[in-house]
Sequence to fold (77 residues):
Amino acid sequence: MIFEKLRALIVEHTDCDEASVKMETTFLDLGIDSLDTVEMIMDLEDQLGVELEFDEKVTTVGDLVAFIEKRLKEKAD
Fold:
């Protein structure tokens, strides 16, 4: 679920092909800079209803998915 939402946001922000967005794809490969990442995180926060304070370095789509899932689990506990 998180991956699909994130992939949709990435495609929306970059106009890249959805098939090119995989868990192991780096944001650098997608041409996404830190500002783009922050904007996408803000969109995800709105969609998921959770605040995602960044305290970890994320370089791949999978890293970000894992980070978001961890935050959602912490919120649920």
Notes: The mean pLDDT is 87. The two ends are 19 Å apart (CA to CA).
